[in-house]
Automatic annotation (TrEMBL):
Residues 30-128 form the Cytochrome c domain. Keywords: Heme, Iron, Membrane, Metal-binding, Signal, Transmembrane, Transmembrane helix. The keyword Mitochondrion does not apply. This is Quinol:cytochrome C oxidoreductase. Residues 1-25 form the signal peptide. PANTHER family: CYTOCHROME C7-LIKE DOMAIN-CONTAINING PROTEIN (PTHR39425:SF1), LIPOPROTEIN CYTOCHROME C (PTHR39425). The chain crosses the membrane at residues 155-172, 211-232. It comes from Chryseobacterium piperi. Pfam families: Cytochrom_C (PF00034). Residues 124-145 are annotated as: Disordered. GO terms for molecular function: electron transfer activity; heme binding; metal ion binding.
Length: 451
């Protein structure tokens, strides 16, 4: 009896150890919720749960490595911490994985503790169910909308009847006037009025001619003003072949302008970024997950479809994670386009004039301050879903900016270079403290902007 109890206890202990080992192996001893946070912070650049990105999908990875390579939890710890060292040790399965996924070396994570890795494995084995979104308020059904529609229809019908009645009344009055005009007394009165008007015109014809001259001048001014605004397209915002929201990228995601428009700072022209620049991020971002912000009238399917257009343009196969070589040019619609006879250099404004332009703009617009020099000309583009021309970009607009923007004299180079000019302006404009604006250093010279 004692022997049986002893063996019974040993059996229970063995079963407990086995279950514990099994649970540990499958990552169940970790915290899936914490693992989800760690997964998003460390893994999503190259992995997704349910599809291949740069690396393989990680859902059920613990079971998969056991089936494919006969390895377990300890192997995954070594692989995640330092996969390079694991491959260098000659581990067969580690080198097979490396070859299978195009020899793309996985980042090493020595900063993750064993508990962190267990939490991540628990998440990939048993990810928490996504929180159910609260259903949006359903649009009014036909039954609920019917009273409103009926009321609107009644108002329209009553309005049309009122207009019809007014027209009938006007027709009756016109007929009465016609009959009255046929009487002899009214005919004589009309004849005398015509004769009187003729006499008045003969007497005051100089005033009439003067009025005609004034009208001609006003018409000429109107035509001239209309001609001067030809080519000014403030507010112009065309639809592009691939939808790109600056509000999402520059606003929500805080992506720096110069990450995409890299030549704006050191080049004359701020070029349209190539599609390969988009792929720097969208190689791993194949779907839209920022569900907290969607432009009205657009849903996740719309944004995902636009990402697929990027893949089609660059010839990227997201399933095989490789380029096919079949590209499709994107015909972007240009928004800002300087005339050929105008010279404009972005680097002069973005580098040399950056702080001066920001200070000048904020001084003139205390309630609408900017933090990036680009916004002075292009508007608060980080709030635009569709880019539009924010300013006139006329010659007068540029000249006004040059007349009011002070040169940054805190800059060591400017302070030394314009020293003599500064002293001269202090004497010439003592009330203004000898402020140096861009026009004072040649900003209004024709040759500065025109060839």
């Amino acid at each position: 009896m004692i022997s049986w109890r002893k063996h019974y206890k040993q059996t229970l202990i063995a079963i407990g150890l086995l279950l514990s080992t099994s649970a540990s192996f499958y990552g169940q001893d970790g915290d899936p919720k914490n693992g989800e946070k760690l997964f998003k912070a460390n893994c999503t650049a190259c992995h997704a749960l349910d599809k291949q990105v740069i690396g393989p999908p990680l859902k059920g990875v613990v079971e998969r490595v056991k089936t494919e390579g006969g390895v377990g939890r300890d192997w995954l710890h070594k692989w995640i911490t330092d996969n390079k060292a694991l491959r260098a040790s000659g581990d067969k399965y580690a080198n097979e994985i490396f070859e299978k996924y195009n020899k793309v070396e996985m980042q090493q994570f020595p900063n993750l503790s064993e508990k962190d890795i267990d939490d991540i494995l628990a998440f990939t084995t048993n990810p928490p169910a996504p929180e159910e979104k609260k259903p949006e308020a359903a649009p009014a059904t036909d039954a609920s909308a019917a009273p409103a529609d009926k009321t609107t229809t009644n108002i329209v019908i009553i309005s049309l009847l009122a207009i019809a009645a007014l027209l009938v009344w006007i027709l009756i009055k016109l007929r009465q006037l016609v009959k009255l005009g046929q009487s002899e007394d009214l005919a004589g009165l009309n004849e005398s009025r015509v004769r009187s008007f003729s006499e008045i015109y003969q007497k005051y014809h100089y005033i009439g001619k003067g009025a005609l001259v004034i009208l001609a001048i006003l018409a000429t001014y109107g035509i001239w003003n209309w001609l001067m605004w030809i080519g000014v397209y403030k507010g112009y915002k065309p639809e592009q072949p691939i939808y790109f929201s600056h509000k999402i990228h520059a606003g929500e995601q805080k992506i720096d302008c110069q990450l995409c428009h890299s030549s704006a700072k050191y080049g004359k022209v701020s070029e349209i970024p190539s599609m390969n620049v988009c792929m720097n991020c969208h190689r791993t971002i194949s779907e839209y997950n920022a569900n907290h912000y969607m432009e009205p009238g657009k849903d996740k399917a719309f944004y995902d479809g636009e990402i697929q257009k990027i893949y089609a343009a660059t010839g990227w196969n997201p399933e095989k994670q490789q380029y096919t070589g079949k590209t499709q040019p994107v015909e972007w619609t240009r928004i800002h386009n300087m005339p050929d006879f105008v010279y404009f250099n972005h680097s002069q404004h973005v580098v040399a004039g950056e702080q001066a332009i920001i200070n000048s703009f904020n001084k003139k617009n205390p309630n609408n301050k900017i933090d990036v020099v680009c916004k002075a000309c292009h508007g608060k583009i980080d709030t635009m879903n569709v880019v539009q021309m924010a300013n006139d970009f006329t010659m007068g607009w540029c000249i006004e900016c040059h007349r009011t923007t002070e040169v940054d004299m805190n800059n060591g180079y400017n302070k030394e270079y314009f020293k003599n000019l500064h002293d001269k302006l202090k004497k010439q404009y003592p009330k203004d403290g000898g402020k140096i604006t861009v026009d004072a250093i040649g900003g209004l010279e024709c040759g500065k902007c025109h060839y």
